Amino acid sequence: MSESLPLQDKYLALIDEIVETTLKGKISSVEQVYQMLLKGITSGTGEVFELALSDRLTTLQTQVESEKDELKKAKDTRSLRAIKTIQTQWQRWQEQNKTIEAIALAVREITIASDEERLSVLLRYTDPNQKQPLNLSQLQQLAKSLQQFGAANTDLTQISTGITQGIASWQRIQENLLSWMYEQKGSLGFGGVPGERGPWASWAKLVKSEIPQSFFHTLAIEQSAIEFTQKQQNINLSNWVELAIVLQFLQRGLVTWFDQQAYDIQAGPKLSISTFLTFAVIWSQLANGFQPQAVIYSNGASQIMLQILRTFAQRPYFPLYGGIFASFSGSSLRDALDYLDAPLRSADGTQEKARILTLLGYSQRALGRYPRSINFHQQALEIARNARDTACEIANLNHLSRTYVQEKNYAEAINNSQRALILSRQAGDKTGETNALVNLGYSEVMQAQQLENIEPEVYESAINYLEQGLKLAEKLGDIQTQSLCFSSLGIAYLVTAQYENAIKYLEVGFKTAQVSGDLYTQGRNLAYLAEAYYNLLNFEKSIYTGALGMYLLEQISSQEWRQPAGLLTILKGQVGDDQFQVLLQQNRPKMISVIGVDGYDYIPQLLTTYRNS
Known about the structure:
Elements: H1 4-23, H2 30-40, H3 46-66, H4 70-112, H5 118-125, H6 136-147, H7 154-174, H8 179-183, H9 199-206, H10 210-220, H11 225-231, H12 237-259, H13 268-289, H14 295-313, H15 341-345, H16 351-366, H17 370-387, H18 390-406, H19 410-427, H20 430-450, H21 456-476, H22 479-495, H23 499-516, H24 519-535, H25 539-555, H26 562-575, H27 577-586, H28 588-612
């Protein structure tokens, strides 16, 4: 403390000087006060200055309150005003100095890091999960500072150049970030006509730099990020950093805009989810593509992927219950979630990891990989329980129930849905309770069918759970869960041979799934509608719904596409090839409105694939 006394005296003198100069009218603006503070305060001694400022402020406030002489009181009041101006400018100085110190720390850590660690250190400073990640202007300052060390280490020059070029490329995109959305009217997301429209093609035209331009062009023609790495064997550190800066700011810019459109069911959370997942997949593909030749680049890509997923997992709209397949269109992303698996194995057991594993689990179920799905959900369940993330714990019990149904293990399905129901009611988690009711009813219907139990009260009890779930979902206004309720009720009525009721619920379920953007549930509803219409001998509608469901499920690589394909093959045999084509052709306009001309033309090929497999 004794060492700080002379410095405190110095700062008291500085404060007094500013006050006195202000009273004499020699200071006419707050900027002059700030400049005096800038010259007078030494970096790293802020606590001493704050102590001196607090001391003077307290003294003057006491004097103003106790002074009886009006002239002296007026002078003290003016001095107090001057002190408060100093206080405001001191806060400004602190913010400015904090930035300077953050950049100085980043420069120091990057310059002293080993060649293998240098990129990882840089990426820590751009991580949005840090308390104060470097913003655009701070990164520009960092690039300038690193340039000064270039003579000692070429990596530092390359990092500096990469940051500068990346910012320049991002700024070219920034002004027209969303122009592609208006060009392809009504088709939101990351799809589009390969090479012509859509975001990647739009951004490729905006950037002038070779690497990001080549990258965007690769995705625009529906090739994957892995194929980009194969073309760019000679990519250097500068190129990699440039691409990283562009993609990070691009992803954040899109999410920021979509988050502001919460009132729009076509934009808002659905597209924010799409953006998070699409960019996480891109980085995981880059991590895969750079192995094993460029381990540093591969590790850097994995690091960014995990940063994106951790940010996503903290968002209120993180999809604990599904609907993610609306995020992916185009063949390059059909098996995208596979790429998220390996990097997560090395991540810590955090709440965020539990949520990401939940997403992977229900995605694997949709792909028909049930043992893998169960493994993900069991891992997530354990982590969520330890992290006390009750909503995530309940979600995984519900997902396990659904997956066990797919494996025809109905006892385990019922067990997990009952646990989810108890826990959700204890926690007051209405979404969890709704899903648990639906899963319990659905599991009991499927078990009764397996046991060939024809007692009507068994089905009535199970359907009662489903109807309770639907009422709760409608009350919550939860479109995603409503879609699940309608679908489950439709399937329950189908297996109990109540075909008219089944069609009623499945049709509403399909439309609700369209609103929520859940392609998997859309495909499943259509597949079961085809069965219901077939049982009512309405072959035209059975062919229409079956063909649509088959196409949608195959597009997301779900093995369940084979269910409607099998039914369509039977129908083709019953009505004959010519009549089958006539019935298909009659529904061509309706089908094209959902899956496009290319989708319609792909249907015969899918049936051939099924027949030959």
